[in-house]
Design a protein that fits this description.
The complex is a heterodimer of chains A (about 300) and B (about 140). With about 300 residues, chain A is α/β, with parallel strands linked by helices. Chain A has one domain (about 5-245): P-loop containing nucleotide triphosphate hydrolases (Rossmann fold, 3-Layer(aba) Sandwich). Chain A is about 45% helix and about 15% strand. Chain A has a 7-stranded parallel β-sheet, with helices on both faces. The radius of gyration of chain A is 20 Å and the shape is globular. Chain B has about 140 residues and is α/β, with parallel strands linked by helices. Chain B has a single domain (about 15-135), classed as 3-Layer(aba) Sandwich (Rossmann fold). Helices cover about 40% and strands about 15% of the residues of chain B. Chain B is built from 5 helices and 5 strands. Chain B has a 5-stranded parallel β-sheet with strand order 2-1-3-4-5, with helices on both faces. Classes of the chains: A alpha/beta (about 300), B alpha/beta (about 140).
């Protein structure tokens, strides 16, 4: 649109913002009609962890540090949708003001929607749209997760698990969850007491695993950039390894697999939502078969 | 899902930025409005305290919001609102409606509306009426 809305890097922020809104609001049919296939997806860094460990602040610091080398950079911050009102309070920006004014960084807050895997309904399409605008890297902050929301693994090249001192119980509980899929584990707020103990808990839990080599653990403090720089280096290593291990085709197949999965899940919700509550008084097998029929008969949209 | 659950949400699918420009440090009102809008189904982006009008306008553009709500208790509403509207215009985003909440004297309310503010809500207005008014503004 007007020149003022373009950044020095030539990104029309208003056009990008509006495209993203369309993509987020689109039904499955509309999504399939407009689906962009991203041929060159920017490296994606997923940041996950329990609520309150400082994910947003850490993402802001990472973005500010990395944008000096990798620009422009996009941040997607996801917060939960209320199951009652379907509304949401997207507050991640409160912790991101240090970078919100940087013209090389684009931040978008997203509500999780119907999805309960820590991501948001149309995230694959959102990422494809951002790729279309020529970003060099994307950081995705998931909702605060428990232990089983590791869908981010499917959409990111590198997965950071963020914890904090005193997360010992969490670590125990996570033994079989996202702790297994993380590429790098961050003990954030490491200026608080107990940081080393938490790191040790992690090492002992991870040391018992056989299948995969343990991910590196890094301590990050708010008052010192040393750990942050170390973390950024680990991300670079993990990104390089992710490319080496599977190659671009494997990566694209993995992203597309989750994309198709999400489209099917969303379509299922659409059809389920269209059934009157009274239908479910019938035998589940009957409703199930009817549901499958309706899924296949789904209208192929307007022309 | 539950047919007996309250009135139907009127703001579902709408994105609303709630921002606090200027120097006053009281964001209880902003938070109350933010939560009420969420409970009416909106996606509410809250930026925290003491934001510059230029910052607010840039966030409004980046987040592609359907409306911007400014909470101002400092008494500087005329200046801050004027600046925010100007910054939105500079970014080609003057079409985003702006509403204002806070301690706004009656005389200033008409001044603000004349500048282009689409709603002015003081603390005497019941919360439900504020939400209904915002919903109408965005319908």
């Amino acid at each position: 649109m007007s020149d003022e809305t373009s950044t020095p890097l030539g990104i029309d922020r208003r056009a990008l913002a509006r495209s993203l809104s369309q993509v987020v609001r689109a039904s499955v049919d509309a999504t399939l009609q407009d689906a962009e296939v991203s041929h060159s997806a920017a490296p994606r860094i997923g940041v996950t962890g329990p609520p309150g460990v400082g994910k947003s602040s850490l993402v802001a610091r990472l973005a500010r540090h990395r944008v000096e080398r990798v620009a422009p950079l996009a941040v997607i911050a996801i917060d939960p949708t209320s199951p009652n009102s379907r509304g949401s309070l997207l507050g991640d920006r409160i912790r991101m003001d240090t970078v919100a004014d940087d013209p090389r960084i684009y931040i978008r807050s997203l509500a999780s929607g119907q999805t309960q895997d820590g991501l948001s309904d149309n995230l694959p399409e959102v990422l494809a749209t951002i790729d279309g605008f020529g970003f060099a890297e994307i950081i995705i902050e998931t909702v605060g997760v428990g232990q089983s929301e590791y869908a981010i693994r499917q959409l990111a090249d590198v997965e950071l698990l963020v914890l904090m001192p005193g997360s010992g119980d969490v670590v125990q509980a996570m033994k079989a969850g996202i702790i297994e899929t993380a590429d790098v584990i961050v003990v954030n707020k490491a200026d608080l007491p107990g940081a080393e103990a938490t790191a040790n808990d992690l090492r002992s839990v991870l040391g018992r695993r056989r299948a995969r080599s343990s991910p590196p653990i890094v301590l990050v403090r708010h008052d010192d950039d040393k750990g942050l720089h170390e973390l950024s280096g680990m991300i670079d290593d993990a990104l390089a390894k992710s490319v080496r291990s599977g190659g671009e085709l494997e990566r694209r197949c993995r992203f597309n697999r989750y994309r198709v999965h999400m489209l099917a899940v969303r379509r299922l919700s659409e059809v389920l939502g269209s059934l009157p509550a009274s239908r479910f008084a019938e035998h589940p097998a009957i409703v199930y078969r009817d549901l499958l029929t309706r899924l296949i008969e789904s209208p192929r949209g307007r022309g | 899902m539950n047919a007996t659950a309250a009135r139907p949400p009127s703001l579902q699918g709408k994105r609303i930025l709630i921002a606090k420009p200027g120097l006053d440090g009281h964001d209880v009102g902003a938070k109350v409005i933010a939560l009420a809008l969420r409970d009416a189904g909106a996606d509410v982006i809250y930026t925290g305290l003491r934001k510059a009008p230029g910052f607010i306008a840039r966030v409004a553009v980046d987040e592609d919001v359907d409306a911007v709500g400014l909470s101002i208790l400092s008494g500087s509403h005329n200046e801050l609102v004027t600046q925010t509207l100007e910054e939105l215009r500079t970014l080609g985003a003057e079409d985003i409606p702006v509403f204002v909440g806070g301690t706004i004297p009656a005389d200033d309310q008409s001044t603000l509306r004349a500048k282009g503010v689409r709603g002015v809500y003081t603390s005497e207005i019941p919360l439900d009426d504020v939400i209904a008014s915002v919903a109408e503004l965005l319908s």
